[in-house]
Amino acid sequence: MKTRRGWRVGKKKTRSTRGVPVVRALAAVAGALRGRGAWVAGGAAVVVLGLVGAWLFAGEEQAAPPDPRARQYQDFGGAP
């Protein structure tokens, strides 16, 4: 029966990423995104992006001037 110590002794490391700055930066970002604060910030970002998207896509349409060739119906007060 192998124990954890036996598993660790048998494995060889292929590559060390300890000195790579990109990997360290990604690990720092991942660590910052854990916890309740990240969920709150992510939720707020989703709400803000939704509001901005709604404002951009459902914006007020510009009213075009009426067509000058359209018929103008006038009420003459015809039948009593």
How does this structure look, described?
The chain has 80 residues and is mainly α. The protein has helices at 4-10, 21-32, 36-57. The longest helix has 22 residues, at 36-57.
Query: Which oligomeric form is depicted?
Result: single chain
Estimate the global geometry from the Cα principal axes: rod-shaped
Radius of gyration: 33 Å
Average pLDDT over all residues? 77
Low-confidence stretches: none
Give me the number of helical elements: 3
Question: How many strand segments?
Answer: 0
Describe the sheet with the most strands: none
- The topology string of helices and strands comes to HHH
Percentage of residues in DSSP E strands: under 5%
- Terminal-residue CA separation: 107 Å
**Secondary-structure class:** mainly alpha
| Helical content class | 40-55%
Give a quick set of tags describing it.
single chain, mainly alpha, 3 helices, 80 residues
Topology:
Layout: H1 4-10, H2 21-32, H3 36-57
